[in-house]
């Protein structure tokens, strides 16, 4: 079928600067005339017309409200820009890690490979007509566009005058698998709809020993529950956990993807994953019955994960450290060793201790997955993670929620390989974590989030904290005035990173106060919100003494919390007497 290309005049729209992970705004902002179109064309222009012509592009996402409209618009614009093929996940669904896998691994029927992707998601932000939509671009390596590209996109949004579109191209039926072919002024244009679970399952099977996990899941001693929070993870969970690994159907909670995530907040943490938290015996109200041995949740686009044991929460910072410590033995993909490990700056130093003990290359990078991608492309990093519930490896260039669950299942299967059939007690998630603390010491850790704070006030608070850093003796005077029982602050700075691969420098990546005993306070402004500002406060204390590793973390950290709140004048600046979320 033939289509024509029309050139539509437009003008720049303010505020199209991509954040940590693309452009995220309320749906009503995206629905403004030309809003999405301007951003998409700005991206095509940043990539350059030569690269766009003939390209194979993936366009899909977490299926949130407005995705179906957005996909059709992008298909029409891709056709008009001379793109050769667009690959769409069935019903526009493709998790962020699956997009990365598809870019890296999939070959089309004619041997074609994808050159990049528009991922339609606002990740863990709520969805629906009055909530958030988002779009980000991923490159040929399967990872998020680097700052050099996102800066260009932003510059282009400020000067855009027109975009081409194939207005008469009929909407493609994204619910039916298959290829639809069109003929444009520049030749053939195909839209292929497929189920990305096939590619994703294949990749997972090449990494993990599914047989040993299947054995673990078949044991009556081991019980499991997975909550997709109505995000896109549900589209993979049934296939992997039930069909491939033999878990019970009843192990799946909220695994039907919904445009509004069932009205919930699709962020896998102790506050928002309420049902799972209750099932795991960690909620305020008891659901009755014995909680499962292992529980996990994902965010809207399935790149985040939360790992829980029976009545036990595993901090994401501990999770990546434990995966790194056990990867070589428990996960076939890593059996020949780890190239290196990395964490984001605000993530606790639990991984550092493992790296040191196993003599592994170690990197501390700014918040944002793209920094890991550079290390991985250069063969310097195998496993990495962030405090923000992201864990992953160099199998793709995004964090991977289901991968993290399979990594934990592999560790559980490995630790239980002799006991799974006999009468011996199961080695539980909690056992594994406590054993890890006994070996490496424990990093008590908590994060306080102050969401939707007045942006001006948040900036003032950060400026105040930077100003304080000019005199450490002065900081210590304040600290000792608040609590005499904490260590001295030994240094304070704003984190700055020089990428060891491309030499690029990222400044102002978080305000740090480092204490003599290894404790840390970190303050950052979130880069993923869509309204106002979110202040994140990260609090950490290292305890090597095995007799002191069993405390409740909020209690152990309360002196440092006290200092952080008073030092930053949190209540004074924000008017908030308590954080919105504590993890
Ligand atoms: C996204 C990125 C992560 C990052 C997180 C930070 O999820 O993919 O790499 O850690 O945002 O979010 P924040 O709201 O703290 O900027
Ligand atoms: Zn996400």
Automatic annotation (TrEMBL):
Named cofactor requirement(s): Mg(2+)
This protein's UniProt keywords: Carbohydrate metabolism, Glucose metabolism, Isomerase, Magnesium, Metal-binding, Phosphoprotein
Signal peptide: none
EC annotation from Swiss-Prot or TrEMBL: 5.4.2.2
Matching InterPro entries: A-D-PHexomutase_a/b/a-I, A-D-PHexomutase_a/b/a-I/II/III, A-D-PHexomutase_a/b/a-II, A-D-PHexomutase_a/b/a-III, A-D-PHexomutase_C_sf, A-D-PHexomutase_CS, Alpha-D-phosphohexomutase_SF, PGM
UniProt keyword annotation of Protease present: no
Gene3D superfamilies to which the protein is assigned, alphabetical: Alpha-D-Glucose-1,6-Bisphosphate, subunit A, domain 3 (3.40.120.10), Alpha-D-phosphohexomutase, C-terminal domain (3.30.310.50)
Keyword match Lyase: no
Enzyme class: isomerase
SUPFAM superfamilies: Phosphoglucomutase, C-terminal domain, Phosphoglucomutase, first 3 domains
Pfam families in alphabetical order: PGM1_C_vert_fung (PF24947), PGM_PMM_I (PF02878), PGM_PMM_II (PF02879), PGM_PMM_III (PF02880)
Alpha-D-phosphohexomutase alpha/beta/alpha domain segment(s): 16-163, 198-308, 317-418
Catalysed reaction, written as an equation: O-phospho-L-seryl-[protein] + alpha-D-glucose 1-phosphate = alpha-D-glucose 1,6-bisphosphate + L-seryl-[protein]; alpha-D-glucose 1,6-bisphosphate + L-seryl-[protein] = O-phospho-L-seryl-[protein] + alpha-D-glucose 6-phosphate; alpha-D-glucose 1-phosphate = alpha-D-glucose 6-phosphate
Homology family: Belongs to the phosphohexose mutase family.
Assembly description: Monomer.
NCBIfam families: PRK07564.1-1
Function: Catalyzes the reversible isomerization of alpha-D-glucose 1-phosphate to alpha-D-glucose 6-phosphate. The mechanism proceeds via the intermediate compound alpha-D-glucose 1,6-bisphosphate. This enzyme participates in both the breakdown and synthesis of glucose.
UniProt name for this protein: phosphoglucomutase (alpha-D-glucose-1,6-bisphosphate-dependent)
């Amino acid at each position: 079928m033939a289509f024509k290309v029309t050139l539509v005049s437009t003008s720049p729209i303010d505020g199209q600067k991509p954040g940590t992970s693309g452009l995220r705004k309320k749906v009503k902002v995206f629905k403004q005339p030309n809003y999405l179109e301007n951003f998409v064309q700005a991206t095509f222009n940043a990539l350059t017309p030569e690269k766009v012509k003939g390209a194979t592009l993936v366009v899909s996402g977490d299926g949130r409200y407005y995705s179906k409209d957005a996909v059709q618009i992008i298909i029409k614009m891709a056709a008009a820009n001379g793109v050769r093929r667009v690959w769409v996940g069935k019903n526009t669904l493709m998790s962020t890690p699956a997009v990365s896998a598809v870019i890296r691994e999939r070959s089309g029927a004619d041997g074609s490979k994808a050159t990049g992707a528009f991922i339609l998601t606002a990740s863990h932000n709520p969805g629906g007509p009055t909530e958030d939509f988002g779009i980000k671009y991923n490159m040929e390596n399967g990872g998020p566009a680097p700052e050099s590209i996102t800066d260009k996109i932003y510059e282009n949004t400020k000067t855009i005058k027109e975009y081409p579109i194939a207005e008469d191209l009929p909407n493609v039926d994204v619910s039916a698998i298959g290829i639809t072919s069109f003929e444009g002024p520049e030749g053939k244009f195909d839209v292929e709809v497929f189920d990305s679970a096939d590619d994703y399952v294949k990749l997972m099977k090449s990494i993990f020993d599914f047989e040993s996990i299947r054995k673990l899941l078949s044991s009556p001693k081991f019980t499991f529950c997975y909550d997709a929070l109505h995000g896109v993870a549900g589209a993979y969970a049934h296939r992997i956990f039930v069909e491939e690994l033999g878990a019970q159907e009843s192990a799946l909670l909220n695994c039907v993807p919904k445009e509004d995530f069932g009205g919930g907040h699709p962020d896998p943490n102790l506050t928002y994953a309420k049902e799972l938290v209750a099932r795991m015996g960690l909620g305020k109200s008891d659901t009755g019955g014995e909680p499962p041995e292992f529980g996990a949740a994902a965010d809207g686009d399935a790149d985040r994960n939360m790992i829980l044991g029976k009545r036990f929460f595993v901090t994401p910072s501990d999770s990546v450290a434990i995966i790194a410590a056990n990867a070589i033995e428990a996960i076939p993909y890593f059996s020949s060793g780890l190239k290196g490990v990395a964490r984001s700056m605000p993530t606790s130093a639990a991984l550092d201790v493992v790296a040191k003990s196993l003599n592994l290359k170690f990197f501390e990078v700014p918040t944002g997955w793209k920094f890991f991608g550079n290390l991985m492309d250069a063969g310097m990093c195998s496993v990495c993670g962030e405090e923000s519930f992201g864990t992953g490896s160099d199998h793709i260039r995004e964090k991977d929620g289901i991968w993290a669950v399979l990594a934990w299942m592999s560790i559980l299967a490995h630790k239980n390989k002799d006991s799974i059939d006999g009468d011996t007690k199961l080695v539980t998630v909690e056992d594994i974590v406590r054993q890890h603390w006994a070996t490496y010491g424990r990093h008590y850790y908590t994060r306080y989030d102050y969401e939707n704070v007045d942006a001006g006030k948040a900036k003032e608070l950060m400026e105040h904290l930077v100003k304080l850093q000019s005199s450490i003796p002065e900081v210590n005077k304040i600290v000792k005035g608040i609590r005499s029982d904490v260590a001295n602050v030994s240094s304070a700075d704003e984190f700055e990173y020089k990428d060891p691969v491309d030499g690029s420098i990222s400044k102002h990546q978080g305000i740090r106060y480092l204490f003599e005993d290894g404790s840390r306070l970190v303050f950052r402004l979130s880069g993923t919100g869509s309204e106002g500002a979110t202040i994140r406060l990260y609090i950490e204390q290292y305890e090597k003494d095995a007799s002191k590793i069993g405390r409740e973390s909020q209690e152990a950290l309360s002196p440092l919390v006290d200092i952080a709140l008073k030092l930053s004048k949190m209540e004074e600046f924000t008017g908030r007497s308590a954080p919105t979320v504590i993890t």
